[in-house]
Amino acid sequence: MKINQVCEDYIRRRAVRHLEKGRVVIFAAGTGNPFFTTDSAASLRAIEINAELMIKATKVKGVYSADPEKAKDAIFYPRLTYDEALDQRLNVMDTTALVLCRDNNVPMRVMNIFEQGAIKRLMLGEDIGSLIERGT
User: Fold this and answer.
1) pTM of the model
2) Domain locations in the chain?
3) Which candidate, 87, 125, 106, places its Cα nearest to that of 45?
4) What is the per-residue pLDDT across 114-125, written as a single tens digit (0 to 9) for each?
């Protein structure tokens, strides 16, 4: 199945217009280019539309020192910098995606997509998951 059978193809101008009209825009799938993961595609799209925040919705609460489903002693990081995530190899997402966000000053929120009401609470300003941002 192709993505355009489910939703509109990505056109930057069209996505920005939807946002200007107050609509919610959800980016799905990748870029269709080799060597670009869906994480890299998400970072690229966030940069292209001048997003205030990129949300990485995943199956765990946020960023941990190790996989919390395998390591019970994994440490949760409520806040960290992109450089800390890269230096500690925290496997938040692929390196290219992290560097794209860092270099373009796009903060990222990592949160559990399966937590009931989490996205709504995040949109209402609640401190959900982990915040990754550029260091000073």
Assistant:
1) 0.88
2) 3-133
3) 106
4) 999 999 999 999
